[in-house]
Design goal:
Keywords: DNA-binding, Transcription, Transcription regulation. This is Helix-turn-helix domain-containing protein. InterPro entries: AraC_XylS_family_regulators (IPR050204), DUF6597 (IPR046532), HTH_AraC (IPR018060). The protein has helices spanning 71-75, 95-107, 111-124, 131-141, 146-153, 157-168, 172-189, 194-201, 206-217, 221-225; strands at 2-6, 13-17, 26-27, 33-38, 41-45, 52-53, 61-66, 86-88. It has 228 residues and is α+β, with helices and mostly antiparallel strands. Strands 1-2-7-4-5-8 form a 6-stranded antiparallel β-sheet, with helices on one face. Strands 3-6 form a two-stranded antiparallel ribbon.
């Protein structure tokens, strides 16, 4: 069973997932990064370019999901180094620093509260989130072309690509593609017909939507809507 709620750090979401049966579960690309907690372990989930299938025994996981571009600044690690990976925090930080952050989670009443405390501590130790990154994400999520968004922000194509690799884990075109996929999935789940979903999300046609969903999710749109 999966549940989520808004977190105290602005724009973040705290979630808990307790698998109800055997087998791995697919985590769909969303442009975000998560700080994860399970059985005394603190990990970082990097940005995904395709569905990430979890493995191992069915245990409860708790996480805090940061909006695109935030986690790399908080953790001090470029996002592209974590792309499509799940990494122990002790592999990224010194043992002492990772242990102190884990201690905040362990000392809390529950893992959700502990992860919020850890995120707030990181935010207090980090410079403010770059507002240009937020504007870029908003423009791409609204369906603006990458070139148009870059011109509006006054950022050259090469500089934008470098900054995107650091902040998001991949270039702006990949981020735009993933955000378009999430828009389409939200529309389809709300009952919008597939042809209309394709047009409103920014696809050339319904076949383009179907190909993109299959490539990013590893499943068809019908399978996603059925919850498989």
């Amino acid at each position: 069973m999966y549940t989520e709620r808004p977190s105290r750090p602005a724009g973040a979401v705290v979630w808990t997932n307790t698998p109800s049966g055997p087998g791995g579960q697919g985590v769909l690309p969303d442009g975000c990064m998560d700080l994860l907690w399970s059985e005394g372990r603190l990990l970082v989930a990097g940005p995904d370019t395709q569905a990430y299938v979890t493995g191992g025994p069915p245990v409860t996981w708790t996480g805090i999901r940061f909006r695109p571009g935030v986690a790399p600044a908080l953790l001090g690690v470029p996002a592209h180094e974590l792309r499509d990976r799940r990494v122990e925090l002790t592999d990224l930080w010194s043992a002492g620093r990772a242990r102190r952050l884990s201690g905040l989670v362990e000392a809390a009443a529950d893992p959700e509260t502990g992860l919020e405390a850890a995120a707030l501590t990181l935010a207090a130790q980090t410079e403010a989130y770059d507002p240009q990154l937020g504007l870029l994400v908003a423009a791409l999520d609204a369906g603006r072309p990458v070139a148009a968004a870059a011109d509006e922000l006054g950022i050259g194509a090469r500089r934008l690509h470098r900054r995107s690799l650091t902040a998001f884990g991949y270039g702006p075109k990949t981020l735009a593609r993933i955000l378009r996929f999430r828009r389409a999935l939200a529309l389809a789940r709300s009952g919008v017909p597939r042809a209309d979903t394709a047009a409103r999300a920014g696809y050339a046609d319904q076949a383009h939507l179907a190909r993109d969903v299959k490539q990013l999710a590893g499943r068809t749109l019908g399978e996603l809507l059925a919850g498989r």
